[in-house]
Amino acid sequence: MRGTGLTVHSPKIECVQSINEIEESLNVLKKIQKLSSKLDQLPSDSNFSDILAEIQALSSKNLKTIYPSNFSPDEDYLKTMPDIQNGSASLIRGSKQRIQHVGISNFRLPVSFKTKNLSSISLETSVTGSVSLEANKKGVNMSRIMRSFYKTSEEKFSFDVITKAISLYKKDLESFDARIQMKFSFPIKVTSLRSKLEGYQYYDIALEVVDFENVTKKIIHLDYVYSSTCPCSLELAEHARSTRNQLATPHSQRSVARISAEINPNFSTFWFEDLVELCREAVPTETQVMVKREDEQAFAELNGSNPIFVEDAVRLFAQKLSKEPRINDYRIIASHQESLHSHDAISVLTEGKTFKQDSLDPTTFKSLFHIG
User: Fold this and answer.
1) Among the ranges given (168-172, 229-233, 249-253, 347-351), the one the predictor scored with the smallest mean pLDDT
2) What percent helix, strand, coil does the chain show, rounded to 5?
3) Rounded distance, CA 108 to CA 117, Å?
4) pLDDT at 146 over 90
5) Does 231 share its domain with 288?
6) Contacts of 178 by beta carbon, 8 Å cutoff, 6+ apart
7) Is 63 contained in some domain?
8) CA–CA separation, 181 vs 354, rounded Å?
9) Helix H segments across the chain?
10) Helices 159-173 and 142-150, axial angle in degrees (round to 10)
11) Which of 5, 27, 271, 371 sits at 20 to 30 Å (Cα–Cα) from 46?
12) Over 80: is that where the pLDDT of 161 sits?
């Protein structure tokens, strides 16, 4: 009798790994996963890349979808976080050239400013901050600009405080050149021409500090809004009255001059109110806030006494700016938004090297349109 042969199948028995072995395996997987996130920087071995790509795809599955509100990163965790912006020059895309300005625009916060009567006023302010970026650097940490600015934001702002802020973020970002510009609307109480009613006129102002090749320049920009009566139209209207007894009115229009002035570093203070007053002296037909009938008549008389072409306007402003010892270089851009023509009359006058330019931004004159 033949014996019966039995084949016994038993499951393969695997040894259970220790906790330490599991941790070591997990650490290896983490390193491989980190490598898979940098496929574009690794050697071009197709098999190796395929393996890492598969690991990357697997790691993206079954991710946690609930925000970990109790998670708090410690110092060790923070050190493991990638910082691509501060990566090596090999990560640079495009031409490896120096960038003159890179930073943030329209970062808004309330800022306290000094006024000429030594009180303070808090205004919503739009901040633009930028630094130069050398050809061998990938990028800058944008949040450092804001953090540097906040270090000085509790102080009453002046050019000196802005200069302090710009020094801080030049140091933080290890840059050679830097710029800060702060834009806001500054209120000044004005009195009507004859009724003596009071109201607030708002002036668009920007303060700018430019630190270029270790030379610091402080610049103030002001938009001054006024009425311009055309001298030619005025003469023609008077001709119709005198020769034909024909009622005629000259055309006038809302006009804007953008005054940009570099502040003389030998003077510690130049008040916003002083620049506004300088503009009023140059061209007194500033638009009005509060108006009764007697004020409207006075404004018509004031315009009739000061008819100006756009060429006259920039030269009148230049005459006052040239005599102001607290101002060095300056630029005047004027736009008379015509009521006669379907186009505007414009003029640009510059003095000194600071604002000399061969080209204008195509949107320059469009930005001078004020709707009140």
Assistant:
1) 168-172
2) 35, 30, 40
3) 26
4) no
5) yes
6) 129, 130, 131, 132, 166, 169, 170, 211
7) no
8) 16
9) 19-36, 46-59, 75-80, 142-150, 159-173, 231-244, 272-282, 293-305, 310-322
10) 140
11) 27
12) no
- Domain-terminating residue out of 142, 163, 184: 184
Lowest mean pLDDT among 58-72, 88-102, 180-194, 270-284: 58-72
C-alpha pair distances (Å), 272 with each of 87, 330, 356: 43, 15, 24
CB atoms within 10 A of CB 203: 18
Average pLDDT, whole number, for the chain?
85
What order of strands is seen across the sheet that includes strand 120-133?
99-114, 120-133, 178-191, 198-212, 215-229, 252-263, 327-336, 345-351
For the ranges 175-179, 230-234, 262-266, 310-314, the lowest mean pLDDT is seen at 175-179
| Mean pLDDT, range 131-151, rounded to an integer | 79
Range of the domain at 110: 96-184
252 and 360 inside one domain: yes
Cβ count within 10 A of residue 109: 13
Write the CA distances from 303 to 63, 195, 202, 299, 347, integer angstroms.
Answer: 72, 18, 21, 6, 20
DSSP state of 5: P
Indicate whether 223 and 177 sit together in one domain. Answer: no
**Residues in contact with 332: Cβ distance below 8 Å, sequence separation at least 6, in sequence order:** 257, 258, 259, 260, 313, 314, 317, 318, 321, 347, 348, 349, 350
213 occurs within a structural domain: yes
* Tokens found for residue 168: 């801080």
Q: Which of 164, 184, 204 is the last residue before a domain boundary?
A: 184
Instruction: Assess contact for 203 and 224: CB atoms under 8 A.
Output: yes
